[in-house]
Amino acid sequence: MALKIVKGSIDRMFDKNLQDLVRGIRNHKEDEAKYISTCIDEIKQELKQDNIAVKANAVCKLTYLQMLGYDVSWAAFNIVEVMSSSKFTYKRIGYLAASQCFHESTDVIMLTTNQIRKDLSSPNQYDTGVALTGLSCFVTPDLARDLANDIMTLMSHTKPYIRKKAVLIMYKVFLKYPESLRPAFPRLKEKLEDPDPGVQSAAVNVICELARRNPKNYLSLAPLFFKLMTSSTNNWVLIKIIKLFGALTPLEPRLGKKLIEPLTNLIHSTSAMSLLYECVNTVIAGQYCCSLGSVVLCVQKLRILIEDSDQNLKYLGLLAMSKILKTHPKSVQSHKDLILQCLDDKDESIRLRALDLLYGMVSKKNLMEIVKKLMLHVDKAEGTTYRDELLTKIIDICCQSNYQYITNFEWYISILVELTRLEGTRHGHLIASQMLDVAIRVKAIRVFAVAQMATLLDNAHLLTGNMQRNGICEVLYAAAWICGEFSEHLENPMQTLEAMLRPKVATLPGHIQAVYVQNAAKLFATVLKSQEGNTDGTAAQETSQLMIERLPLFVQSANLEVQERASCILQLVKYIQKLQQKDVEVAEEVSALFAGELNPVAPKAQKKVPVPEGLDLDAWINEPPSESESEDEQPKAIFTKEEHKHSRPRHTEVDEKELAKRREARKQEQANNPFYIKASPSSQKVYQESTGVEHIPVVQIDLSVPLKVPGLPMSDQYVKLEEERRQKQRVEKKKKEKKKRKEKHSGRGKKRDSGPESEEDITPAHMVDIVTEEMPENALPIHTPITVCDIQGNLQDGSQVVVSVIFENKCDGFLKSMEFNVLDSLNAKLQRPEGSGPHDGLTVPFQLPPGVSNEARFVFTVQSIVMPQKLKGTLTFIVKDSSTHEKLDFKLHFTCTSYLITTPCYSDAFAKLLESGDLKCSSVRLEGVSMPFHHLLARICFHHHFSVVERIDSCSSMYSRSIQGHHVCLLVKTTVSIDAKCDEPTLLGNVLDEIKQTFSQC
Amino acid sequence: MRIRQGKLRLQKWYVPLSDKEKKKITRELVQTVLARKPKMCSFLEWRDLKVVYKRYASLYFCCAIEEQDNELITLEIIHRYVELLDKYFGSVCELDIIFNFEKAYFILDEFLLGGEAQETSKKNVLKAIEQADLLQEVRRRIRTKNENNGVNNDFTITKPTLLAVRPRSRFMTFLIFLLLQIRLR
């Protein structure tokens, strides 16, 4: 036995150890691979020996080779052997090799479980330590499951050295085996208050990392961490805690207020830049921004960082600055000088950061100055990457927010032209698209743009000089198009035409040639026109001759597009020439080919085109592909479940979510479509912000003005529809009135001539009818019928209702001293001027000559709006000459509908509302209604103050809001059933009853 | 002609990746870092990670960290590791790391665990290492030291070497060193 050991040691003397291997590799630079393959052979031999020392040496060498990139996975089992050696020296090497070479798919890992468990419970803390370290690198879900308990025990080990490692590795275990988190958590929490600072910091690390993944489970620890944060002086721990709070604050906004003080203290006091940077970052990222002071402090500190000579601090300062820029552009803008300085920095990555910042700093005033500075940099810049970056930034800066900051487009065009002089840029197409965009959209600039483009075309050889790097020749595309399209502005079209037909053009890329050919034809038309106008035919004929001579070059082009266009135009010109030879004037006809001006289209233009009757834009043209159907979320039942039973095939049943999605997609598409002018930023903002109900733009409805609700086009359309209908209806009412005098009527101030009969007869102005009491037999022959034309809630005050009353004098006498009085109920009271008693009447502020009507408004205070109610009232007046008081009784009917206010609602907000689950639902069926669906909708809109949120062919969702803020949502289906939801069931019930009544009357 | 290419001296990965991926990442990263000019700042954005590197003589130490991690503290970690190496080997040079690469790993493992700093006190790290070393065979250590001394003069270190520490993926939130690379001519 002893002999064997001695023999083993002697063997080892002859083996290569690691140092020999390294040296060998360095001495065999020329044939490294060959040398290593012999080494590997040797190692294989060594691994076959029984001696563990030899094996360990071999494994050590293998670890080195692994790092050099050689495959050693074949030795995995030998590594396990060395790991299980009882000697620490070898064990250490074994674990090191394992941690470097093993990964999850290494199958021998499962053999190690028991060995690792043994090592973990070893009395020697370094055995345990080495096992933990190794495990941290190659832990698999299986290992994590089997060893979780052992490691958990180690968290309470007597030695802090082990506790610390065990705590840290628990995080790895949690990741691989999440079930272990629950049992281990209490112990982990205990470790936050461990006497050893290393263990404590390890526990902070682990919890911080866990919290970053799933913050809401760790909110309860906030007070503990807050204590740690204010007491700890260890920067490593502080950074982690601040990170943790950064993850928690979005969930608990109150934390932000509490943290702002310690954070600002730290910012003021700390000398550690890493901690300062962490604090600043957290303040920026968190919603602490409520306090402007802290932002200003951060910006100040960042300024110090940026001014520092250390490149690293400069870089990070700029990086953090760009984050502030997003939320507080103003506070960053004051440091423009500093950021412009950074553009001169020798470090490219710092310059790029500064460029990012510039984007947000421009204003109308400083745009030119900044761009001028950037242009200088473009000239100086070495390396195309940075220069290209500059170029895109210049364009980005200029065209941001729809050219918001550009005051002078001539200047911008010249900048673009200057940029074309950049050699070898990749961004030719970007410049080109800007040129096109500006020339098309800014009419006033066209003369200037055309002149510039003509020069470009003339000097095209300068741009295309080097065909290898011809990215820039894309601008010729734009130049040719602009010159052609706006050729009437050209000073010397003939010269430009010639420039466009030079033989050199044939070397340009096909798509540019195609544009050349097409626009040469446009130019030709312009030239003809001018030449025919002032001279004899020869000049014009010469022009045609020029075309005929030059075009064949393009007819031979390999590019089909060029070929096709060229041959077409060539034939055309030949024909024109024939006509010219017969002295026929052709210019008019030729230019007719290109007549008509291109105009930009506003994004909303499509909405102005009425949708033809019977066309449903949301219906599928083809059945949707089946895969996408399975991918789509099943639409949520927003009303009752019964909806699904009734609903038709899948494609017609589109809910709000889906529609919102589609609208979003459409918007996206429009944004990418160059033919849409992007909406101005302000209107976009409105769209984005209108996510919650509280953001719904509310429009006060003024009765003297026709209803007009800005907002959704859909609802707009309906409002218009109603408007028309209302007018028609008024006309009809007027007619009826003539027949039935003394009866109630409806009417508004405006008189209208009789219009076309409306096909659907909408009953008089909705909810309120005044019932004039039966007249006594001997009463005055003709009375003053009064009509309440509208009862409208007051939006500003949830308890106010305005009643507009129209008084019409139908008798022959002059009416004066009219007094309007209502018997107050508990719930509703007439608002009387101060100082008057509760039963006093209100004087109507006008007198009525015979046959005249006028309108007065009265304000009522209402407590509860969930129930309809009737108020009794009297009108007293004096008929002139008779000087007796006359009295007229009436009833005022406050329906629940009158408490609703037409409020537009965006479908996303609507969907949110329905999802919120606060609403009670109810439904109603309308019997015997046989009107077109859109009439039905219009009626509900009109009579019951709803607005259409979304209309799909078979159903429509509608929304309204009560003066006290109840939301009322309807889903009306073509089956004439209405599902409704409201946060106030009584109100809803009454509204539905009223709707039902409306439709039963017709 | 010598190829201007970094050689790996140490690497440590704190995320499980296949060898192929590791190689690819290493190659890309070495190229990117070596392409940086000396006066440039120590941070760069690379894929969805941030790379923090620092050059000490001929060695580059580099670390890939995640988006939310703190660059400056990472720089501090690198520096601290270099200090540890320095204390342990006694003014460390590249050859110390080459010939005792396992020691360099042991120190790293005492300093960081699972990508997270486990011991911020230099003294404690060194104490742990020394005590663990005591358990090793004495003979082996002496032999190593002697041979090192003999070899040192054979090589002059002229070219920068890269020692890089590599990223954690989004699966591993524990910070910092994923791979250590060193380079020599």
UniProtKB/TrEMBL annotation, chain A:
Residues 654-786 form the AP-3 complex subunit delta domain. GO terms for biological process: anterograde synaptic vesicle transport; Golgi to vacuole transport; neurotransmitter receptor transport, postsynaptic endosome to lysosome; protein targeting to vacuole; synaptic vesicle budding from endosome; synaptic vesicle membrane organization. Residues 617-683, 720-764 are annotated as: Disordered. Belongs to the adaptor complexes large subunit family. Residues 731-751 have a biased composition (Basic residues). Part of the AP-3 complex, an adaptor-related complex which is not clathrin-associated. The complex is associated with the Golgi region as well as more peripheral structures. It facilitates the budding of vesicles from the Golgi membrane and may be directly involved in trafficking to lysosomes. Involved in process of CD8+ T-cell and NK cell degranulation. In concert with the BLOC-1 complex, AP-3 is required to target cargos into vesicles assembled at cell bodies for delivery into neurites and nerve terminals. GO terms for cellular component: AP-3 adaptor complex; axon cytoplasm; endosome membrane; Golgi membrane; presynaptic endosome; terminal bouton. This is AP-3 complex subunit delta-1. Keywords: Acetylation, Coiled coil, Cytoplasm, Golgi apparatus, Membrane, Phosphoprotein, Protein transport, Repeat, Transport. InterPro entries: AP3_complex_dsu, AP3D_dom_metazoa, ARM-like, ARM-type_fold, Clathrin/coatomer_adapt-like_N, Mu_AP3. It is found in: Cytoplasm; Golgi apparatus membrane. It is a peripheral membrane protein. Residues 633-669, 720-730 have a biased composition (Basic and acidic residues).
TrEMBL record, chain B:
Its main location: membrane. GO terms for cellular component: AP-1 adaptor complex; clathrin-coated pit. It is a peripheral membrane protein. It is found in: Cytoplasmic vesicle membrane; Golgi apparatus; Membrane, Clathrin-coated pit. The keyword Membrane applies. GO terms for biological process: intracellular protein transport. Residues 4-135 form the AP complex mu/sigma subunit domain. GO terms for molecular function: clathrin adaptor activity. Keywords: Coated pit, Cytoplasmic vesicle, Golgi apparatus, Membrane, Protein transport, Transport. InterPro entries: AP1_sigma (IPR044733), AP_complex_ssu (IPR016635), AP_mu_sigma_su (IPR022775), Clathrin_sm-chain_CS (IPR000804), Longin-like_dom_sf (IPR011012). The keyword Membrane applies. Belongs to the adaptor complexes small subunit family. Adaptor protein complex 1 (AP-1) is a heterotetramer composed of two large adaptins (gamma-type subunit AP1G1 and beta-type subunit AP1B1), a medium adaptin (mu-type subunit AP1M1 or AP1M2) and a small adaptin (sigma-type subunit AP1S1 or AP1S2 or AP1S3). This is AP complex mu/sigma subunit domain-containing protein. It comes from Scophthalmus maximus (Turbot). The lineage of its organism: Eukaryota, Metazoa, Chordata, Craniata, Vertebrata.
